Amino acid sequence: MTEAGDICLAILAAGASRRFGATDKLTANLRGKMLGLHAAENFAPLGFGKAVVIAAHADHPCAAGWNAAGFEIIFNPLADSGMGSSVAAAASGAEGLSALLICLADMPFVPASHILNMIASLHRSNHGTQAIIASRAGSRRLPPALFAAAHFGRLSALKGDRGAHELLADSETVDSEMVDIDAAKLIDIDRPETLAAVNCGHNGDLLRTIF
Q1: Sequence spans of domains, the chain
Q2: Which has more confidence, 191 or 104?
Q3: I need a labelling partner for 26 at 20 to 30 A (CA). Which of 12, 71, 75, 168 fits?
Q4: What is the C-alpha separation between 67 and 152, in angstroms, rounded?
């Protein structure tokens, strides 16, 4: 078993993309591939015990690519209520494993090496089953984030807009550890202009407005 073999990887892909306009942003072309496939294909080779995508539609255009990468698609009928319901679905899908890694499908630039660093930090942690391992860019805590099994109950109870970012704000007061990453790797694609900028290689310009 790999170091990731006792962890569930969950990629959240059920957002409404309201800031992107009428188009589903996960189907948009990012450097020759649908945006929604980048994270799944980057992390699939890491040997997770279970890998799931939380989607608003079982027949999402990315579904074939997700399945080909080894992901189970979990349909979230409550996706319109906010990210909390997707986190809850991910936690329910992680039952029986020791930790849950939550990633966002619209964060395509997180490298596999960062995920491996997070997993190593989890296994080294003195907090054991209480550990939370978050990504940190400067002073900000952001997904991806790892939650040990003791947190599954709390995650499974989430509703509405109570999602990953808010959970990481909470993590400042519990047994959490940080893994640093270049802020450019944590850019999320929320708007058409952001997609256009990264397709043109202007990640650095975006950092001045996002971070």
Answers
A1: 7-210
A2: 104
A3: 168
A4: 25
| Parallel/antiparallel/unpaired status of strands 29-30 and 33-34 | antiparallel
Count of other CB atoms within 10 angstroms of residue 127: 15
> What whole-number distance in Å separates Cα of residue 23 and Cα of residue 139?
33
What does pTM read for this prediction? 0.89
C-alpha span between 181 and 14 (Å, rounded) = 25
Compare 103 and 196 and report the one with higher pLDDT.
Answer: 103
What the block records as the tokens of 92 is: 């329910």
Architecture of domain 7-210: Alpha-Beta Complex (3.90)
127-139 pLDDT, tens per residue? 777 889 999 988 8
pLDDT digits (tens, 9 = 90+) for 16-25: 666 666 678 9
Place of tokens 């040997």: 47
Please identify which residue in the block is written with the tokens 């947190």. Answer: 151
